[in-house]
Design a protein that fits this description.
The complex is a heterodimer. Chain A is mainly alpha-helical. A two-stranded antiparallel sheet of chain A has the order 1-2. Chain A is built from ten helices and two strands, in the order H-H-E-E-H-H-H-H-H-H-H-H. The radius of gyration of chain A is 23 Å and the shape is globular. The mean pLDDT of chain A is 90. Chain A has a single domain, classed as MetI-like fold (Orthogonal Bundle), CATH 1.10.3720. Chain B is mainly alpha-helical. Chain B is 74% helix and 1% strand. The chains are: A mainly alpha, B mainly alpha. Chains A and B meet through helix 1, helix 3, helix 4, helix 5 and helix 6 of A and helix 1, helix 4, helix 5, helix 6 and helix 7 of B.
Chain lengths: 282, 303
């Protein structure tokens, strides 16, 4: 009779070891990149132009490029994403059209990032003649981030109790007034979390910007949205695979800056979520 | 707290109408984007299907410089890497989801869940970079292969990229199993361990299938990490030892070659053709995954 409890004990230990095998490599990845990259980090590395075939100097234009791309993505993706979410959560009834929208969102989230790159090249760069530019890249990335924003934000809107809507209506508020003054403020932390999660994905992506924005080596800052630019993820790809004899420390330093950028956005999203979840009164 | 403005009928009617129309349009736009993506893939990719003979297009040689556009080795490369990734990620993912949902004490859960979110947030190019510099040399030395950039390396890295998806969806599926199922199992004298594997996991089967499908979709569409660690040799992976040799996936082919082709050339159209295959493949996978979700909702009564 003790035997099966012994089996359970063994089983639970096995499960905990497997979970450890899942998370331990994450710490190893971060640890190695931090340890090997920290030596490269300096004020100059962050703020200087690269020179001597990128083997010297810094990553300034790539960093600025990624920030500008992320900003552009936010400008396009936030209104579309939040509007789409409001429609799905507050207006849409359960019809076949709504189901089509849901299927489209599932599908958008499943399309490979490189296919977004092809689409951006075909539509924005060539057909709409934007050329390889920040604009073309931001539009491509924005469409890619939509499903992340919508699915997270919709959860936040749906978490607001129905009573809030009925009370608003009973006070004579219109549907939009209810959404604008009651539902949205209540769901704001969740919406912001969704936006950050979407944008951090955009900031770290390489494949969609390969043919739409990214410049191999362009040691100046972009002057307008129609300029190409270097970008951090692509820069990391370039210096780790395309440039022979690249100092390892610079490679790790670049990876560290990218990792730090993305993980700090992740941290902000987590903090916002847990802070407001604790403060919520319903 | 909230200043609800009195609705002035005449003032708000048209505004309400305009806002609702705008929001409806934004909601519908997602369908538009999917159609646009497919349309532009077709526009640029379809010429490859009539400019290149079928025997060539589905041949076993991809040498664009000699006008050979056989997509078969690329397709098989993608499939092999993806299957390897899923074979590694499925047991790890389900075990972790079970541990997090059913077994782990609170403090362990508080550590595991954010860690898995961190993994989901690491850019693929960073994981590829890590794979190149750490995982590949490790595999080369332990297995004694001439190169560490193999299908197995790619599958291993991809497995970890698919894990966050698999774990979170599988965990939701376990979460949806009513507590009464667990109570019933325990009341029958089963241990918690027996209840988990004979009652809870079978009840969450469809959700776990969805998790695996979505993980597979992630893996087959992954580009940068795969390109950096699988070695990029467009050869037919037919023998068993192909697992420890380089291969090349569809995604990596597009990423590596699109930058260098002339727009409008056959090679250019062929790369878009691969894009069409990828689009349809992931569409199919997601459709099946979504169908399992819909079926689950229809069953209603059970949960």
């Amino acid at each position: 009779m003790m035997n099966r409890y012994w089996v359970q004990r063994l089983g639970f230990t096995l499960l905990s070891l497997i979970s450890l095998a899942v998370v331990a490599p994450i710490l190893v990845v971060i640890g190695i990149i931090v340890v090997k990259g920290l030596g490269a980090i300096s004020w100059e590395f962050i703020t200087a132009m690269p020179f001597d075939g990128m083997k010297q100097g810094g990553i300034f234009p790539a960093l600025v490029g990624t920030l500008l791309l992320t900003l552009g993505t936010a400008l396009v993706a936030i209104p579309i994403g939040v509007g789409g979410t409001i429609y799905l959560a507050e207006y849409a009834r359960d019809t076949w059209v709504t189901r089509c929208i849901r299927l489209a969102i599932v599908n958008l989230s499943g399309i490979p990032s490189i296919v977004y790159g092809l689409f951006g090249l075909g539509m924005f760069v060539l057909f709409l003649r934007m050329g390889t530019s920040i604009l073309a890249g931001a539009l491509t990335l924005a469409i890619m981030t939509l499903p992340v924003i919508i699915s997270t934000a919709e959860e936040a809107l749906r978490a607001v109790p129905t009573e809030f809507r009925t009370v608003s209506a009973s006070l004579g508020g219109t549907r939009w007034q209810g959404i604008r003054y009651i539902i949205l403020p209540q769901a704001l932390p969740g919406i912001i979390t969704g936006i950050i999660l979407g944008l951090l994905r955009a900031a770290g992506e390489t494949a969609p910007i390969l043919f739409t924005v990214a410049a191999f080596f362009l040691p100046r800052l972009p002057q307008s949205p129609f300029d190409p630019t270097m970008a951090l993820p692509y820069h990391l790809y370039v210096i780790s695979t395309q440039v022979p004899g690249m100092p390892l420390q610079i490679q790790h330093g670049t990876a560290l800056v990218l990792l730090a950028l993305v993980l700090s956005m992740n941290l902000v999203a987590t903090i916002i979520r847990s802070y407001f979840r604790r403060r919520r009164q319903w | 707290m909230v200043a609800l403005k009195q609705a002035k009928a005449a003032g708000t009617d048209w505004r309400e109408f305009v806002i609702e129309a705008l929001i409806r349009m934004l909601g519908f736009s997602t369908i538009g984007f999917v159609l646009l993506i497919f349309l532009f893939l077709l526009r640029e990719g379809v010429p490859s299907f009539y400019k290149v003979p079928f025997s060539n297009l589905f041949g076993i040689r991809w040498y664009p410089t000699f006008d050979l556009f056989g997509t078969l080795p690329l397709l098989l490369g993608s499939v092999l890497v993806t299957v390897t990734a899923i074979l590694i990620a499925l047991p790890l993912g389900v075990a972790t989801a079970v541990f997090v949902r059913e077994v782990a004490p609170d403090w362990a859960r508080e550590i595991l869940k954010p860690m898995i979110e961190v993994l989901a947030g690491i850019p693929s190019v960073v994981l590829g970079f890590f794979g190149m510099h750490v995982v590949a040399p490790l595999i080369r030395e332990t297995l004694g292969t001439p190169t560490g950039l193999t299908v197995f390396t790619g599958g291993l890295v991809l497995a970890y990229m698919a894990l966050p998806t698999i774990i979170s969806v599988a965990e939701d599926a376990l979460d949806a199993v009513p507590k009464s199922f667990r109570d019933a199992g325990l009341a029958m004298g089963a241990t918690q361990w027996q209840t988990i594997w004979r009652v809870v996991v079978p009840a969450a089967r469809s959700g776990i299938t969805t998790a695996v499908m979505l993980g597979m979709g992630r893996a087959i569409g992954e580009t940068m990490a795969v390109m950096m660690v699988t070695g990029n040799a467009a050869r037919m992976p037919l023998s068993l030892d192909s697992l420890f040799k380089p291969a090349r996936t569809m995604t990596a082919t597009i990423a590596a070659e699109m930058g260098e082709v002339a727009q409008g050339s056959i090679h250019y159209h062929a790369l878009f053709g691969i894009g069409i295959i990828l689009f349809l493949l992931t569409f199919l996978i997601n459709l099946v995954a979504a169908a399992t979700i819909f079926k689950k909702q229809r069953r209603g009564g059970l949960r």
